[in-house]
Amino acid sequence: MVFGFAVGLFGQTKYPGVGKVASAERGKAADKTVMADGRWLPVGKGSVESGRALYKTKCAECHNEAGEGRDKQWPALVGGTGTLQSKSPKKTVGSYWPYATTLWDTIGRAMPYDQPGTLTADEVYSITAFVLHLNGIVPAGQELNEKTLAQVKMPNRDGFVADVHPDVKAKR
Amino acid sequence: MADRRAFLGLAATLAACTKSSKAPSVVEQTMTPYGERAATETIARTVGESTASVGVGSSRTPLQDLHGVITPSSLHFERHHAGVPKIDPAKHTLLVHGLVEQSIEFSLDDLKRLPAATRVHFVECSGNGGGELRGTPGATAQASHGLLSCSEWTGVPLKHVLAQAGLKPEAKWVIAEGADACRMARSIPMEKCLDDALIVYAQNGEALRPGQGYPLRLLLPGFEGNANVKWLDRLHVTEAPAQSNQETAHYTDLLPDGKARQFTFHQDANSLITRPSGGQKVSGGAGFVEISGIAWSGNGKVKRVEVSMDGGKSWGDAVLEEPVLSKALTRFRMPWVWDGKDTVIQSRCTDETGYLQPTRDEIVEARGVAYNYHYHGVKAWVVKADGSVTNV
Hints:
The complex is a heterodimer of chains A (about 170) and B (about 400).
Chain A: E1 20-21, H1 24-28, E2 45-47, H2 48-58, H3 60-63, H4 100-110, H5 121-134, E3 143-145, E4 160-162
Chain B: H1 2-20, E1 46-49, E2 57-60, E3 78-80, E4 93-98, E5 104-107, H2 108-113, E6 117-124, H3 130-133, H4 141-145, E7 148-157, H5 158-165, E8 173-178, E9 185-189, H6 190-193, E10 198-203, E11 206-207, E12 217-219, E13 232-238, E14 253-254, E15 260-262, E16 270-275, E17 287-296, E18 302-308, E19 316-317, E20 319-320, E21 330-338, E22 343-351, H7 360-367, E23 380-383, E24 389-391
Parallel strand pairs in B: 4-13
Antiparallel strand pairs in B: 1-2, 2-3, 4-5, 6-7, 7-10, 8-9, 8-13, 10-11, 10-12, 14-15, 16-17, 17-21, 18-19, 18-22, 20-21, 22-23, 23-24
């Protein structure tokens, strides 16, 4: 390092005095990340049955009674399995999404669409369980929690590949 | 006395000035602390807001009406997934945590103490041009490519902020999260974070606009718009991507074999004729018309733009306006003497990596049509004999 202050020692910053050690309160926000292996999921639980009632009040207005979607604007949550190679693929939670944790994270962050972030952890586990059940991925009696959610294997888990770049060859 | 004489002399000159100058009979505007454009100027974004939730949706930049390469901040395109949050900049902080030696929190003032950088870069939604891909091409430049804008951005290189927390050797990704209602999050590869990524607080010389992430956004030059997380307040350093909604269910490209391509970040070489373009009219009939447009690449500088005025049979090199900047819009110009007959005009870009902008057919051949992202095909317009310009 050229500059005297640009030290790389453990715990020392490159630009002294700038920024402060994160407060405990702010550090709590850190557990908002949900990883595909289930890390940082909040403690909680919910069943297909408890999700059924919640779905009716929180989700059905847009996604319809059985997750079939509504009009063109509101996406279907079910169906489409086996269509990804067809001319009109139907990308849903069941046919496309690779991780159950992503479903939890999406509901927890972004749903209901007009009131994002208002559901409790237990409510999110419940609705997640019900939507997975609608897709035939978990049985009616299933309960999910922060330990078991990431163990749910989604049908399209192996359906994603890394970007290949550049992939289009134009002719001059 | 000398001072007094000088003063009197000056006063006389001022009086003469006042007497001889003619006040305009109608005043356009009174002087205001923050300026407005002329009342007769009306170019605008087209706004598509969701019927279900306020402030959710997208707005498109009127590319056909702009000059040069900088998008006025008021006309920058928007795509909001949960509306524009109201943020008090005095309370807003950026948390850096995870695989770092020390979790650190930065206020806006803290970030402004760090070495800053100002650069011109485009931001483009990866859904831009999706209609062209799906076979429903836009009738105007705004409709076809309006999810594209270019600004001068100022902020702190992300590498400085990460270094301040001290990266651990196993740190490979950074999950960037915004303070909007849905706390939209994307996982960014460490290579990009340590390269040219910026944490931006200013756009075109002033604070970011609310719709662009006020008071802080991530700016990843050349990467798809969605990854440039707005209202940024948290960077979680990890060894793997989170697999969030916006990097699995969306912004992935489903290929004909049923597999979906993930973490496609770069917006490839692209170009668009903006004048004459769809919806405009070439008035006055045959004769000289300058063709002008924009070219860009998420992989570096634009090296060459070719224009065809015969439906793609022959191509000529357009002039690129300096300065040609990396991962920024470049303005191109091409002189043309129009014979007054129906003419198909189109442009194609080659970037500094040598990559040539493909046609729609070439993209479809390589990727199919079962997705909506990363389209960058050649766009053609027809200048009709009556001077009207339409989509092909």
